[in-house]
Every structure is written in structure tokens, then in C-alpha cells.
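Before the break, one more example. Copy the sequence into your notebook; we will annotate it together after we see the structure.
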Amino acid sequence: MTPNSMTLDAGLLIALDRDESRAWLILHRAVARAVPPTVPAVVVAQVWRSGRQANLARALGHCRIEPVDEHMAKVAGVLCGRAATADAIDALVVASAARRGDAVVTSDPDDIAALTAHAQGVSVVAY
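Here is what the structure looks like once it is written out:
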């Protein structure tokens, strides 16, 4: 399943970097619909480890990289509090998705679902 509008988490970016065909299919379907996936900039920091990640660089070229502003940081903090988690990166992914009513495409649906339970209009798609 590929949602109309999506936010990608680190797990999907890692799969793209590893050249996993299922991850590329998700990305290519989004690109074909002219709906670029969003990736919060903090997720790029979480997965970028060298200048030799050609697959990841190519994938990110098809995505909209969203900066984290003060409002999104505060929304993520509230989500952490409500979900009783300390994972600020996952909370920022959900806060980003909530801005647009996106689905979060993730390799860790349980952790993301704990956060989306406290965010309106966000769904979870397990990768």
C-alpha cells in the first residue's frame, strides 16, 4: 500500500540506502503521482553516515526535506509526553506528518502508532 501523501521515517530511508526493491517501489509510486514524500531533516541526520551513500542521496533527491521549526519541536515534545516516550525523532516524524495529514511509512509501526494515537489525521503504513 502506498498512501497519497507520506512522511518517511529512518527505517524506510535505510531500506532505500540498502537498495531494497520494496522501498524503491514505495518511493517510485509517490514520484509517479507527483506527490514527493516528506522527510524531516532530523531523520536525514539519523541515517546519513558518509558521502558514499549514493542510494540514499538519490532517494532524498525525490523527497521534500522539511526543516524542524520551533512549533514542530513543541508539538513533538507534547507527543512524547502524551505517549510516554523519549524518542524525539519519531515524535518529530509524527509532528511533521500531522501538518499535512500524511501517512507515516515506517519499519517500526508499533512505536509510531503509540505517537499517532495522540495526533489527528496521521496514519501508519508498515514497511
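Strands lie at 6-8, 38-40, 64-66, 103-106, 123-126. The chain has one domain: 6-120. Try to locate both features in your own notes.
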